[in-house]
# Entry
Amino acid sequence: MKQVYFDNAATTPMDPKVLEEMMLFMKEEFGNPSSIHSVGRRTKARIELIRKQIADYLKATPSEIVFTSGGTEADNMAISCSVRDLGVTRIITSEIEHHAVLNTVEKVTQKKEVKLEFVQLDDKGNVDLNNLEMLLHDRTEKTLVSLMHANNEIGNLLPIHKVSEICNVNGAIFHSDTVQTVGHYPLDLSSGKIDFITCAAHKFHGPKGIGFLYVNKKLKIDSFIQGGAQERGLRSGTENSYGIVGLGKAMELAHKIMIEQKDDVLALKRYMKERLIEEIKDVRFYGNDEEHSLYTILNVSFPAFENADMLLFNLDLSGIAVSGGSACSSGSNQGSHVLNVIEKEEDRPAVRFSFSKLNTKEEIDYCIEKLKQILN
Ligand SMILES: Cc1ncc(COP(=O)(O)O)c(C=O)c1O
# Structure
């Protein structure tokens, strides 16, 4: 059966060049980077080279990059360390953040005397910047603002630099979950106004279980995981050297083709939208217009129909892999917490189509045909 993978916001297939680079390294290098002999030192040197390359892409410095097991750990670390080490007593976030952020802020605000506030969103799910400014006007509490750069369900982009200015002027720490944008957009941290960003290699054709947290050098945080003081004492545990090599290669490839990839994938998203409008009655779209949305994600609201809850299952039977809302919350039957905040018509099924450089227009045509059959 034909297999079409339109769930690239959940994860992407590994690029064969990433796999090749990892295999070469795995075959030849097994050293522990903390060992002082040459076997260990070679691994250490490779890790430090990749740290420097990543820092260069972000216009940051190598000591600001801390390798983690991925996006979830990096988000946890930024938020938990802000409360524990930076005197944060108030967190402002939004109700449509990823659970890596929402569940962490909930936890830290339960345990400590830390207040949690949610910024207002407009009806498309965008952060109301005036409301953010108003909330930040009260400067009696040390505040952490945690707002994602791109929403993983509806694709809305945050004006990250504008938000960093607002936070900076008001003395707040700014963390942005950039898991959906690192490797997809160039990010320039040279202004020094963004304090934490996060990355997961598997979102841009790298391996799972590896990512990083960027920590602005002006912030002095303490270790998040205790042990042998790896990662400059911030994150103990023998480094995932194979993962780091894969992350490094995935970053390099992503940056090499970033502009063409954006154009190509955006053309697919546009084509999908046009074909849906042409072929399916009363189809609607969540989130922002093209200019203010991630080029990889198209979240579609279909008209209500009998067996609507079987839509994803039926697409799967036709070999089409997609998500309803976010794959990260699959298994729960509470629906998407993002759509629950912005959606008013609950009986309309929603499907998140998310594309990568590996998808084709022909796959979209196949998907449209299958959708027509299922909806009729
Ligand atoms: C916006 C966002 N943040 C965090 C994560 C978690 O990243 P990881 O899977 O590397 O733990 C994801 C993964 O879906 C995500 O989309």
Residues 326-332 have pLDDT under 50 and may be disordered. The two ends are 22 Å apart (CA to CA). The CA atoms of residues 270 and 331 lie 30 Å apart.
